[in-house]
């Protein structure tokens, strides 16, 4: 079986599914996710632009701020329907209408709990009272606005007979969209579909309404439940960017949009969302809400289009379809990331070095690969800069290495003096010493001086740079020695700064010896 890239698929049937985004209402209900007025406007503008059909912009009765946000979003929206939430209360509905009425296409969304738990414990209302409330509030809303959405909160834990009766009451009172919320993320795909089928079969007039599905992710099934509802007849999915929302969140917009696109062969439905804006929307919402996106989040996570393991990278270099079912461009990313790390292989390393301008033959690659693996064992991720450092150090230390650092152990901390135990290989023989210093680098340099006396040479420059970010970053160290006007620079890179410093020092010393030999051959120790 092949998995063609999304845009090559010819849909058998294109039933349109409306995308209802509630990032600014249910998403913002997530503890700690409050957004500023400006951030909400920017998000709404993007959602409108990218083809979201309905934007639930807020809960106008909740606060002045929410009211202002919904009113301003209603004014700015060009294409989307702008919706506000209201309880089954005349005051909520009037306030909601005051905010959404500025929109070209306004909608009032009103709801009431229908499950036994909600009726008895939250509302203290009988079934009859709930039904009366539905009639009174939905008809009031319908007198204000043509587009009315009604939701039986906690629908999936409501008795089937009462759910049917409540929905029938709302439809008779003028609701045009009936939303079925799985308020506490309790349902499973089979049941989600069965509820929609059951309602379509039993509720008179429901076939004239749009049926919506609103799923929460408490058991990690929100996307699956939403898609199952669509297969059973729902034609509106309620969702949020990055799956932001109450508790474990809502159905993630990016997941349903891409699932319907990629698996159009088995779910022949389309949405109006421009999927190439998904990454932009994800980043905007993550930053506004202050909720970073988990690395392995479907579609928009940092690793959703990244590969570190050699076998996958090799496959990707040969054909991107081997390990990806979507192209990064489909969701607004520039390219797949082949991240180099301890699981990577020679193909990916060779490819990356080529991108960085190093054309190496197989023997050279084999050599670099050994050092690359050694580095990768010590570092979570090997960045481009790490590889450049690796290649440059290789080039600068290749020739005339009479002195090599074999081992180094330093003791440092608050109690001085710091000490270094160093073994240098000098002209093929091991030499060992112990030295102290003012800090670990000084102690290590003193140890080098003890083994290779070079009193005439002066340390002119000592520079340390972190190649990348993070405490496991490689340090590149440059050391410059000067002796009677002759200058020799040495470099080294290592995740251990003292090791990098000592190797850079020794590298400079090797070069100095070469320069000495060129002018007048001398013994190794000055
Ligand atoms: C599943 C959901 O996402 S529902 C939406 C949840 N979102 C929010 O609650 C965010 C915004 N909410 C708020 O700002 C406040 O809760 C307000 C302004 C709406 C109400 O504040 P308060 O009047 O202080 O009431 P409070 O929030 O403490 O309690 C909720 C009240 O609404 C009632 N209520 C709850 N849902 C509904 C409903 N759908 N229709 C009518 N009344 C409802 C409760 O029974 C309770 O009433 P009570 O005071 O008679 O017991
Ligand atoms: C207001 C309703 C639709 C809701 O968010 C829920 O039940 O989860
Ligand atoms: Mg909800």
Provide an overview of this structure:
This is 2-isopropylmalate synthase. GO terms for molecular function: 2-isopropylmalate synthase activity; acetyl-CoA C-acetyltransferase activity; manganese ion binding. Homodimer. Catalyzes the condensation of the acetyl group of acetyl-CoA with 3-methyl-2-oxobutanoate (2-ketoisovalerate) to form 3-carboxy-3-hydroxy-4-methylpentanoate (2-isopropylmalate). Residues 404-526 are annotated as: Regulatory domain. The chain has 17 helices and 18 strands. Mean pLDDT is 92; it is low at 1-13 and 521-526. It has helices at 23-27, 37-49, 64-76, 90-100, 116-123, 127-144, 160-173, 189-202, 222-232, 253-262, 278-289, 310-318, 346-355, 362-378, 384-397, 440-451, 497-519; strands at 15-16, 18-21, 54-58, 81-87, 106-113, 148-153, 177-182, 210-215, 236-239, 269-270, 306-307, 337-338, 403-411, 418-426, 429-437, 458-466, 475-483, 486-494. α2 (37-49) runs parallel beside α3, α8 packs parallel to α9 (222-232) and α16 runs parallel beside α17. Strands 2-3-4-5-6-7-8-9 form an eight-stranded parallel β-barrel, surrounded by eight helices. The protein is α/β, with parallel strands linked by helices and 526 residues long. β7 (177-182), α8 (189-202) and β8 form a beta-alpha-beta unit. It is elongated and about 100 Å long. The chain folds into three domains: 15-289, Alpha-Beta Barrel (TIM Barrel); 306-382, no CATH class; 400-519, Alpha-isopropylmalate synthase LeuA, regulatory domain (Double Stranded RNA Binding Domain, 2-Layer Sandwich). Residues 26, 29, 59, 61-62, 87-89, 111-113, 122-123, 153, 183, 246 line the site of acetyl coenzyme *A.
